[in-house]
Amino acid sequence: MLGKKLVTAQKRGETRALCLGLGMVACSMMMYFFIGITIVPFYTKSVWTTETECKVLKANIKDTVLRPNTESSEDEAIFPYPCLQVWVNLTATGQEVMLYQTEDTLERNPKCSYVPGKSENSKEVKLRIETIASNFRKYQTFPCYYDPGGTQTNVILSRLYPLKNLVFAFLWPTLMFTGGCLIIVLVKISQYFSVLSARQ
Questions:
Q1: Any transmembrane segments, and where (predicted)?
Q2: How far apart are CA 46 and CA 32, in angstroms?
Q3: Mind listing the pLDDT tens digit for each residue in 73-95?
Q4: Chain centroid to CA 76: how far?
């Protein structure tokens, strides 16, 4: 009687462990799919792949420009902010090019090197842009990214999704997938030895 209860409890535990392993594998596959349709296209689409050194030539704050504000209505869809333009000397080619914060900055406003966030008010934006400009004047040389193919003549300060971030994004689903497969393998080994001992 006690033996039957132990066998039943063992089978229930194996079933739960198997379900856990399969669930972990399924979740990791969904995470892989999500990363594959969101982060990977941004990484592969970026042409600014090579790191080099940039030297600041000038960092000027131009006239106030208007940026669309998606949080407000169409009548109030403008947000004024000072336009910071940073021109650098690209060490790899010796060209004078314009610097942008990220790939997204160029798409949002190609006239300015920095585009503020949506939640910032005008005073915060003005102060932040003045601080950024002074930092560029202070630190003349810094690493930047350029397009070795020459399709984009400008450079960016940092990539939205560098390789290390992409690897880190794939780390967690990989660990979950490995853990799920390990649980399934251990359950199958346990079932095999149980059948083997029952035959003996």
A1: 20-43, 166-187
A2: 20
A3: 343 345 678 889 999 998 877 88
A4: 31
